[in-house]
Structure formats: C-alpha cells, structure tokens
Amino acid sequence: MELVASSAAQSAMGTLLRKLGDLVAERYTLLGGMNDEIQELKDELESMTACFRDVAGIGDDDMHKDQVRQCVRANTKVNLKLSFVPFVMRTWMKQVREIGYDAEDCIDIFLHHLSKHSGTLKVRLKLVTEIQSIKSRAQKVSERRLRYKLDAMDMKDNMPSSSSYVDVDRRLPALHGDESPLVGMAENKQKVIDLLNKDDMKLRAISVVGIGGLVGSGGLGKTTLALTVYNSPTVKAISTRAFVAVSQNYDLHILLQSLLTQLIGNASGPSSSDPLRGIETWHISELIGRCRTHLEDKRYFIVLDDLWSLEDWANLKVAFPNNDKQSRILITTRNRNVAEHCCSDAHDLIYNMEPLPFEESKKLFYKKVFKSDECPPLYHDLDVISNSILKKCSGLPLAIVSIGGMLARTKNKTIAEWEKVCDRLGSGLETSATMEGMRRILSLGYHDLPYNLKACFLYLSVFPEEYEIKRGPLFRRWAAEGFISGMHETNLEEVAAKYLDEFVNRSIVTPTRIASTGLVKSCKVHDIMLDVITSKSIQENFISFMGNQQHSTTGHDKIRRLSIQTDSSGSNKEQGNHNINFSHARSLSILCCSKKPLLISFSHFKLLRVLELEGCWWLSNEDLKDICKMSLLRYLCLRRTNVSQLPKQVGALKELVTLDIRETSIRELPDTVTELGNLKHLLGGRYRHYTRISRVKLFEPHEALIIPRGLKNMKSIQKIAHVDIAASSHAMQELGALSQLTKLCAMSCEYGGEQWKSFSASLNMLCKSLRHLSIIHWHKSDMGLETFLELKSPPIFLEQLYLWGRLSVLPPWILSLSYLVELSLRENFFDGELLRQLGKLPSLVSLKLYHESFVGTKLCFEPNLFPRLKQLIVDNAPNLDELRFDGGAPNLEMLTLAFEREPAKGIFGIENLPRLKEVEFFGEVIFDSLVEEMIAEAQIHPNRPRVYREN
Fold first, then answer.
1. Domain named Disease resistance N-terminal: which ranges (predicted)?
2. What distance in Å separates the CA atoms of residue 841 and residue 813, rounded to the nearest whole number?
3. Cys-Cys with 301: which of 27, 238, 352, 849 at CB 3.0–4.6 Å?
4. For residues 410 and 417, is the Cβ–Cβ distance under 8 A?
C-alpha cells in the first residue's frame, strides 16, 4: 500500500512552492534581505517534494503487520526493513506536511497584510522570523530522514507496481437503467418482488438482511437490490413511492424532508405553487403529520435503506399509516435483530441475502476486468490466480467489483502482477468474514490510485454517509483546497472531471445521476469504503471529525480540516471538549445540520480557505459578519440556508473564488461584491425538480440575483447563474468586459424587449467564451425575445442552450451551433418545421421540449435527423396528436413524456429506436392506456426498454 498522505502533502507543497516562487520573483523589493532565506526554504521543500514521489508505492503499517504475523506463524525471518520503516516514514511525512501547511499560512497572511499595509516594517520583520523558524524546522526534518536512513527506493522494490493512470474519456457511457453488471441480482429481485406481491391488503414490511456475521452483511448488495426492485416496472406502477437512505448517523428532520419531497414534490406539476416551501422550518411532528395525511388514502411503496437500530424504526414507522391499500415498506439492514423487529407482524417477511455463488462471482469479476462474462483466451493463464483472488472476496459483490476495477487498469495483466495483488490481500475474507478483511480488500483499490488522485479521494470523507456528492461543488472544493491544478491548456474542471471518471471506472464511487451526455452529475461512496478512507484521513490528520461517535480525532495536535456530522437527533456528540483549537483550520464542512454546533464560533477560524454550510438552516445574517472576516476564504457555500442578505463586508473576501447562495432568500447583492476580483463562480437562484432523477426542472423566476454596477471589475468571473437582467441593467451593460465568462443564466419578469436589447449587445462580445447560456423571459404572451433573432455575433462554441420565452421563429443562428450538445426550449410556441430544423445539429445529444415549446399537432423524427440524440423530453405539448419515430434519432436511449391530453393518434415507431433503454411517463395526469400500449411495444422490442410512470 502507498502512504495515504503522500499526495495530500504533495498538494500542499505544490501550492506553497508556487507562492514561494512568486515571492522571490515578484516581491523582491518588499522583502529586503529575505530573498535568500525564502530561496533556501524553497530549495529545501522542493527536495522534500521530490522524496514524496519516491515513496509512492510503499506499504503502510497495517499491511506490514500482516506480513510480520505471517512470518511469525511460519517461523521465518522477519524483514525488518519492511516491518519497521513505514512507521518512521509515516512520522516523517506528517512532519513535512505540517511544515508545508504552516509555511503556506505564513505566506498567505503576509500577502494579505501586504495588500492592506503596503509591506510595513513590522509585517516584514514578522515574516523574517517565521520563515527562519520554518526553514530551521525543515532542515531538522531532512536531517532526521537521513539519520534513520529511509531509503524509499529499496522499499519500493518489495511492492507490486501500481496501475497506471489512464486518461479516460470524459463522457462515460450512460448507465441509466443498465443492470448488466448486476450479476446474480435478477433472481434476488424476482424473489423480493414476489414477496411484495402477496395479495393481502394490509401494510406489509419486508426486511432484506445479510447472512449473520459477514462484516455486518455489508458489501452484499442490499442497496443495489433495493434500487433494482424500486426501479422495476412492478413497483413503478405504484405512483406514490420514495427511496430514503437512513444510514448510521442520520438527521431525522432532514430524512423526513427528503421523504416528503419525494412523495409530495413529484406530485405537484410545474404550474402548481410549491406545497413544500419553508419545509426546513417545520417541526418533526408536522413533517410526520404531513406524511401520514398524504399517504392516508393512497397505495404507497417506501424503501428505508440501511436501517441500523430499533430506535430508527420507531422514529420512522409512525409516518406510514396502515390504510389497507396493499402498501409496502422495503427495509434493508445489516442487523438481524432490526430485521426481525421491523417484521414482527404475522404478514411481514424477511428476505436473507446470500453471497454470490462462485460461478456468478467469477462472471462479475471478469465483466469488471475484461468487459466479458469469461476470461478471454489471451489471458487464459490468469484463470487459476483469479480463483484465488475470488476466494478471498467470499462472494461479496462490493469486494469483487473493487478488486476487479483495480485489476482492469493494471499496467501488465500477468500472473506475477496478479499474484502480488493476491498476496497483498492477506487472508481477505477467506478465513474469517470480518470488517478488517473487507477493509483490506477495499483499501487495496484505493492505494492503487496514482498519487495525484489520492488527496481528492481522501477528501470524500468530509461528506456524511449516504450523502449525494454533486459534481460541480465537489470540483470547486477540490480546486479551493489546492488538490488540482491546470495542466498546459487544460482547465481545472477538466482535470477534476478526469479524476472523478477515474474513481467511477475503478468502482470506488458509485454514480447516482448520469447526464445524457455520459457525464457523472453526482455520486456516492459506499459506507464501508467511506469508513476506510475516514479512518485513513484521521490517521494522517488529513481531516478531523466532530459529532460522529465512530471517529475520534483525539491526538490531532493541529486541526487542518474539520467535518462536523450530526446524529439522528441533529446533536453534536463531542460538545464536551472545550479545549479544541480551531486556529489552524483551513477547511470547515457542516452539511445538512439542523442545529448549530455549540462549540463553533466563526470568529475562531482565521485561516479558513473552504467553508461549506449547505443545509444549515440555523445560519443567520449575523453569522455572515464573522464569516466575512475570513480574509483567506476561497470557497463559501451558503446553499439551502436561512440567510437573506449579504453584508457589505463581503467585499473584504479578496481571495474568494466561489460564492454559492443558491436556494437562499438572497436576491440583491451589495455594491461591494464587485470588489471580488478573484471570484469565478457566482451562483444563485432556485430550481424545482420533477421526475425521479431530476431530468425535468423549472427555475423559479422571482429568485434571480440582482447584481450592482461594477460587474466589469470582476475580470475572473466564469459562471453567473442566475441574474435578473431588468433589475441589473447597469451591470448588464458591462457584461461584455468579462472575457472569461463561460456560463451565463439570465432572466427577466418584465414586459417588452428593451432590457434584452442591451443584454444581446453585450452577448455579442462574448461570442468566443460562452459554453452555457440560459435565457428566460417569463411572460408567455410577450414577444420580448425577438431581439435575439438578429444576434450579430452568436456564441459559436455554445454547448448548452436553454431558451424560455415566446418567439415567432427559431433564431437562425441556433442552427449554426455545431458544438451544441444540449438544447432546452420552453413556452416558445414553435410550430411546423421545428424538428426538421433542429435535426441537422450534428452534436445534439439531449433535446428537451418543455411546456408549450411546441404547439403543433405532429412531431415526426424523420430519417437522417438527430444522428447523435440520446435523450428526448416532450413535456405537455398542448396540441400534440401524434409522436412518430420514422428512422430519425437512431441512438435515442431515454424518452421522457408528459401529456395534458391523450394524443389522438398515439405514439408510433419505437421499433425504429434500436438503442432505446427506457420510456418514462410523468405529470399530473398519466393516461393508463398510453402506458399499457408502450409496455406492450417494449416487450417485443429487441432491446426490451423499461417503461416507468412517475406522478
């Protein structure tokens, strides 16, 4: 195994060395006699950084302890170099990392004071003293390494080579509805569905539990089974349903919010007022009451995934009324006592999951390694060693997929290399089904990662169990932490995307939402893998934790990154320790926490670079004043909090790169926001989502941001979403000065097109930078968007376009967008030749025809049109009588439909869609006859697409 902190330390060093280089090159006149001191420190740290590269591939003490135990049992000589050196190396790495952090803090504080006081003598003298102290520490640490003769290269010779980093395709294959990798799952799914379908009308609970003693039954695929059942046509016929991840440390208030959002949110159409507005302020008793009221007269299906205790079941079951409607609750748990308690009534049932039989284990393994059910003839010699590896995985899908994902990417698929992997697994799960065995297997896949990905992966432990990690915020946090940097002409987002794709390809994280283009929009970390990386993060003082009883941070002399996670009551379980020092913290993450942690005062966090507060409803406007004193802050997320106004002091956050105020009540930004010269991402507004994986969403028009005059000063800005252009008229006149702008979401609720004229004039100046453009004119009877018909310099490199508002014809410049991948239209009232025009766009993958975007009577996909289209949404085309597929869109995979009235002639030609995977019906009204006809067509379709209904 590789030392877990090597990449984290190198990331810190890389950022620091760049800053030291800037000081030497640019600040010479302000440093007086300090130039030589800084150069010497830089040289010393460069040597240490080079050493980090050498130790990549060295085993940690857990693996070497296992080797020592094996040697003792075999009465053979212990290799002291292997068993002893990693302990010393770990200590040395920790010391170097701490030097890097302290040095960067010193430089950042100096540069901050420099900008405020122009390099006063007092500031320079303080820097001199601290740099000399840090340089002395660095030299002593270097001498210590030589004293203990830590020869990294000798140790590497004893370890198997790690797999190479492969530059994977950014657009992973879309996996919607694809059960091909779920070897052995079909039989389990059918057995559970048979239990659900028993004909009694009473409310029934079915518990899925693993066999006793097997790592708490973790890794058997219970969640995958529950998801497969939940997405089956049988369950899809139950219109009222929800899938809720419970986990060990859940917040009951937030869990009930999720439950209600799924039950009620999807039942309200785009034209409805939001019945859940203000749900964050409801008491638990009100949330439970709303659930019971909504479910009282309905047949429903609820999944409670990963239930841990009897108390959890007692808290949740009161929300589900027994209404004699043949309702069902499916529970997954790793605790047999919980399973039996949940199924205490005579009509309740328990389903025991078993490990995969050996032959099915082998199929899953080869499918992961070779994309085939069998070992290819070229690698036939690997069959025997494969059996040994599989024996150590004991039929657990999670272990098999993890090891298979790693071996799929090894440099050399040889017996020698695979034997090294098998040896590194130790006893695995072969002799005793313990959590330690599972950890060893999962750790091997993690440690095989290239060094530059490790810090990014360890960082995933800041997210609570079962948390859905969104792509954009994750990338922005990685960048703010300094874990990724642009290479040549590649921007940070592209680098981060490759890292995430690498994690997915290795089956280390699981995608939860994948766009039609194949991009992973969000993912989760399996709870056992999360436990592994959390333990390693604590071990290396990479991240400290509060509020979670499982993970103690005792012994962390300096807290650098802090994640506060709450239990089911929303309380913090480490409130008693009042001696914690937060002064060195660089990152603070408090996610979905319903109560303010008692120990937290934002005034204690002077050196913070990253502050994540999503879902912290307790946050107040008063708290923001202390936050605005964090002069080094780069990333600030206030999403889904109770704040309503940014203070003027926000302009003091000169280093801020991301300001995320989505789903808050903040609309008007203070004048000082334009002083944020480093800001790249300005994110505001609010969406409402419909359908099961949020393919259909609606922006709330009155939630857009009002930006003050002075926008032209924000030269670094790359993304603005969403801006009210009518209320921000002066700022919109300056829009053309933002040469780095790649994403712009603009809207107006005013009549007429005057505000759009000045906007389109500025848009002409952004023709080469924009990649994503949303235009919303929120008056269906008004022709204010006509000004865009004559756009002189359209954004020629546009990849995504969302156009909401009435137009007499489709703007002709849209047809010249050869890079356009996604097009969304709403309330445009187009007729006639729309598809023939759009069908010639060469790169279009996703077409979303939202409410009243098309008002004709017939949509026909003719031959040779839409050559790359994979996703089509038709949402309430009011006059539509016929939808036909006559040879166009041959690559269509996902078809999502909603109708205000039943099409008089119907839907024809899905047999001409050879790649179709699924058809989904949604909306306030779903016509059963239409769904039944589609199901019948799907059964004779060669690809057997699945048919869903969502209302």
1. 12-73, 89-123
2. 11
3. 238
4. yes
| Helix, strand, coil percentages for the chain (3-state, nearest 5) | 40, 15, 45
Residue spans of beta strands (DSSP E) within 220-336: 240-245, 300-305, 328-333
* pLDDT tens, position by position, 35-61: 677 777 767 776 766 665 555 444 444
923: nearest Cα among 948, 886, 890: 948
Question: What does the pLDDT read at residue 9?
Answer: 54
- Both structure tokens of 659: 């300001």
DSSP state of 856: S
Phi, psi of 695 (to 5 degrees): -70, -30
Distance from the Cα of residue 775 to its chain's centroid: 26
> What is the Cα–Cα distance from 484 to 565, expressed in whole angstroms?
26
pTM of the entire predicted model: 0.79
**Nearest-angstrom CA–CA distance, 312 and 368:** 36
Beta bridge partners of 612: 589, 637
Quick one: 84 exposed, middle or buried, by C-beta within 10 A (0-12, 13-18, 19+)?
middle
- HSE-CB of 280 using CA atoms within 13 angstroms: 17
**Predicted local confidence at residue 19, as pLDDT:** 64
CA dist., res. 297 & res. 577, Å (int): 49
* 3-class SS string, 627-695: HCCCCCCCEEECCCCCCCCCCHHHHHCCCCCEEECCCCCCCECCHHHHHCCCCCEEECCCEEEECCCCC
Q: Answer whether the bond into residue 681 is a cis peptide, omega within 30°.
A: no
Q: Decide if 785 contacts 806 (C-beta within 8 A).
A: yes
Q: How many CB atoms lie within 10 A of CB 232?
A: 18
Q: Which helix (H) or strand (E) holds 114?
A: helix 80-117
In the chain, what's the furthest Cα-to-Cα distance? 88
